[in-house]
Design brief:
- 2 copies of one chain form a homodimer.
- Chain A is of the alpha+beta class.
- Chain A has helices at residues 55-67, 131-148, 162-173, 179-188, 214-223; strands at 9-21, 26-33, 42-43, 46-48, 75-80, 91-101, 113-120, 192-198, 208-212.
- The first copy, chain A, is 28% helix and 28% strand.
- In chain A, the strands form 2 sheets. In chain A, strands 1, 2, 3, 4, 5, 6 and 7 form a 7-stranded mixed sheet that branches. In chain A, strands 8-9 form a two-stranded antiparallel sheet.
- The mean pLDDT of chain A is 92.
- The interface between A and B is large, with 36 and 36 residues.
- Strand 1 of chain A pairs antiparallel with strand 1 (9-21) of chain B.
Chain lengths: 229, 229
């Protein structure tokens, strides 16, 4: 019988990749670090996990403290554990990600963040640690995810046009979609209820409004979606 | 300017959910724990991460030490961090999972494992810690994954019948599939090369053999698969 060796302990952090949409583009929420290492540089909001909080609680606390953002659906992304990813010592980080509508949040830097701001995913500044790699993994996951889970329920107004929904998908996927093909596929999923209402106050011909069928939306979110683009 | 607080440190472990297939059923590789806590109980192979190894290195080392299993594709599953998941102290665990052909591996308990053995997923013994929940998450991930990534390349012989491929999917999904529908969908993906060869030494009418088109297989693995069942 061997003698149990002492349990090793490692610094554990959380980092949050919050993607923010509006009608035109996809951005990521970053903070300017107040402290060393990487003082004055941009990074993902995050910090060390306290011994008495769950990983998701830590992610929510750090995001709230550093950016003011609360009340969002955070999903665990991946755990990054390369031995040399932090210059201080070994730090393993559990990354979370979210997709929100930017207009719903008022962001402001505080605590360890001198500033907080949205940056276009295509034009990120140089990032601290391995945060550029974490953003890349999160973006790939987000794009893969919209193929097997519908999006839009929390991101569009209750009633919307098919053009608005297409623009949402185009923004997340960062690519143009064929209008006829998009409509055919989305309508075939019976995800939407067609309303006898049309958009108001537009110069062009008013487009029909749709609404998500919440039951069908929830079912597709759980069971798989298969949206091929 | 606040003074940086000391960095908290937490015990970090890895656990491996290795699913093993043969022609008939899906099993999970478990070890009987030699040490407390949960001494004498079954658990996932795993252990603490050393300060100088990556998370995947730790998972491979523990799996090899406790079961003799090496040379397999391990994918990160999820990180479980509830504060009370270990009776000793706070332990956060990064879970990995894999799907292998059981016949390719000779398992034997060693190190902290008194025994190592395969258990049918439908008939698991009571498991230590939150390992039953980890297995459930892994099984759900595996079933979701076969819908957007093809399986079989490392799990079937080079040449196989459509019946053998269907049986593989049925075993992983733990549900029967309609034969005609399965064939139609699989062939439509152009994932397979049809051979002018037939199975040998069978009592029934010999079935045609197929082979994976490796280029197409790799492409579908990366880009998404959309296998609806």
């Amino acid at each position: 019988m061997s003698i149990p060796s002492p349990i090793p302990h490692i610094a554990l952090s959380v980092d949050c990749v919050v993607f923010g949409l509006d009608d035109a583009d996809l951005k990521v929420l970053l903070v300017e670090r107040r402290l060393e290492p990487y003082g004055g540089e941009w990074a993902l909001p995050g910090g060390f996990v306290h011994i008495d909080e769950s990983l998701e609680q830590a992610a929510r606390r750090e995001l709230s403290e550093e950016t003011g953002v609360t009340k969002l659906y955070l999903e665990q992304l991946y755990t990054f554990g390369a031995c040399d990813r932090d210059p201080r010592e070994r730090v393993v980080t559990v990354a979370y990600y979210a997709l929100v509508r930017r207009g719903n949040y008022d962001v402001h830097g505080a605590s360890d963040a001198r500033r907080a701001a949205w940056f276009p995913v295509a034009k990120l500044p140089s990032l601290a640690f391995d945060h550029a790699a974490i953003v890349r993994v999160a973006l790939a996951r987000l794009k893969a995810k919209v193929r097997y889970q519908p999006i839009g329920f929390e991101l569009l107004p209750t009633k919307f046009t098919l053009t608005a929904l297409q623009r949402l998908y185009e923004t997340v996927l960062e690519m143009p979609l064929d209008k006829r093909n998009f409509r055919k596929r989305i309508l075939a999923m019976k995800l939407l209820d067609e309303l006898d209402e049309w958009e108001q106050n537009v110069a062009h011909r008013a487009a029909r409004l749709y609404r998500f069928n919440e039951r069908k939306y929830r079912r597709l979110t759980e069971s798989g979606f298969n949206f091929e683009v």
